[in-house]
Amino acid sequence: YYDDTKPDGDRLFRIGQEGHYSGEVYKRVIKFWITPANPVKSVGSDVEFKANAMFEDGSTDDVTARCLWASSDTEIVSMNANRASALKRGSAVIRAEYIGYGNSTSMIVE
Q1: 3-class secondary structure, 65
Q2: Which residue of 5, 30, 43, 90 could cross-link 76, Cys pair, CB 3.0 to 4.6 Å?
Q3: What separation in angstroms does the CA of 109 have from each of 5, 11, 31?
Q4: Are 12 and 32 in contact (CB under 8 A)?
Q5: Is 39 exposed, middle or buried (0-12, 13-18, 19+ CB in 10 A)?
Q6: CA 29, CA 16: separation in Å to the nearest integer?
Q7: How large a percentage of the chain has pLDDT more than 90?
Q8: pLDDT tens, residue by residue, 50-100
Q9: What's the CA gap between 93 and 98, in Å, rounded?
Q10: Measured distance CA(35)–CA(43) in Å, rounded
Q11: Which residue(s) pair with 55 in the sheet?
């Protein structure tokens, strides 16, 4: 984001300092996590992941629907939004990204 608190010539673009606009209050994210952590599932089953953010004021919010979700190996685990489908045996890393923040967990398929 553009940092306009510095005088002309000293302005910077900050990375990783974006926040979440909630109503009239702009809140900066200080923690971002996904659940469940490291699920183990059988072929043919699904897992619904959730993503949460904690903001500088201590409040938390379910940001699942606002995340981009991905699987490191779509032959083992396919993703449809936050729902992971176990296709064949193996493991894949499930990643969620929210306004520049990311977190991941592994999913093992037996």
Answers
A1: helix
A2: 90
A3: 50, 49, 28
A4: no
A5: middle
A6: 9
A7: 67
A8: 999 999 889 999 999 999 999 999 999 999 999 999 999 999 999 999 988
A9: 17
A10: 20
A11: 29
Q: What does the alpha-carbon distance between residue 91 and residue 32 come to, in Å, rounded to a whole number?
A: 23
Q: What are phi and psi of 48, to 5 degrees?
A: -105, 115
Compute the distance between CA of residue 61 and CA of residue 52 in angstroms, rounded to an integer: 6
57: which residues sit within 8 A by CB, 6+ positions away? 25, 27
Question: Facing residues of 71 across strands?
Answer: 94
- Retrieve residue 92's tokens: 């894949």
Strand order in the sheet with 77-80: 46-48, 83-86, 77-80
